[in-house]
Amino acid sequence: MEWLVILAAVALQVYLTWKKLGPFLSLLIVALLSGLCLGMHPEQLIRSIERGVGNTLSGLALVICLGAALGKILEAGGAVTRITTTLIGAFGERNIQWVLLLTGFLIGIPLYYNAGFMILVPLVFSVAYRAKLPLLYVAMPMAAALSTTHCFLPPHPSPVFLINAFHANMGKTLVYGLMITVPVVIVAGPLLGRLLKNVQVKTESVFLSKDDDPEKPLPGTLPSFLIGLLPVGLITAKLLADHLLGDYLLRTILDFTGDATIALLISVLLAIAYFGKAAGQPLAATVKWVNEAIGGIAVILFIICAGGVFKQVLQDSGTDKHIAALCAQWQMPPLLFGWLITAILRVAIGSATVAGITAAGVVAPLVASGVASPELMVLAVGTGSVFGSHVNDSGFWMFKEFFNLSLKQTFLSWTVMETAISVLGLIGVLVLEVVVGV
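^ Gnt-I system high-affinity gluconate transporter, sequence as received from the core. Prediction below:
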């Protein structure tokens, strides 16, 4: 019964979007109907919707708004133009995919996916616009690098949780994860981006100024890079402090400033102070950039929120537990089993983190019995958690709306990329099991 409801919900979502109802309303309708069909009491369903809104916005709202504000200030103040021209001048247009891949990878290690995505979106649009390159050709390496680090590498929440759940060694997990990540991200990023080079997408964004003057003075290269990457630096400092410093005042300060929201807020304030002045703009004009950025992403934020409601309804209805119990009856190699159950949960409920956490409870006995390597099981579950991202995943809607894609284009780009990362990651885990002998 649960499978039929999930399949019908996905089909209805695609149909309503195709009929131009809009993803925000259609996701809410699908969430309501799914909850009722799964046997939820109306009062329980209402509480689930409220919980979905709260859970989604609490982790995304400030990060997305502040990230959009920082991106807009960097763009309007000329910093993105300076960074773009510097990168293209240093590496050439032919290598720009690899530049964005490396940038996404370095930023993706310390930053959560949403924060890294918001920081790099303006750069993607600027590179595509100024170098006259197809948008997906430029966007795929960035998105692949961020997504791969998010599911494979600590200190991201899901890998860290799995390391603790399986009592794995964090150092080994990080090394094994890096060994798998490099080839996977090359295939899912630059190579897939080249296959999508002919997909026509409008290079229009709130991050691109309509009155851009090619003759206007640009800010310096060093401050442009420093302020643009300041959130990464602050969050990295927090991670290092957590591992290297004891209970000192400096660690408390770095823990505070290294929070994603605080790091972005500090960066926004510095960007207002520096780039507003460097561009000869009064404070009122600079604050207007912030308001324009937040206004420009408001609809996107609520679409993501509606996707979170859909995910919460599936979770609260007990669908994830039903699937987990069914999968526990199957007989197959431990690492493949860990990947498969996580992939099924991911497709069903949308959240990579929830899928990984739920699957951990099912496969933990296999790790405890010694039939599977704890470190490789972390990676098997992690790579399964990004399989087949579709309409019940907030990341799907972020990618679609920010890059002006149709539903079909999003399936062909984002969903294919996430599935490629998952399948290739599984192959890497299985190969590593043979080669390393663990």
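Residues 54-156+216-306 form one domain.
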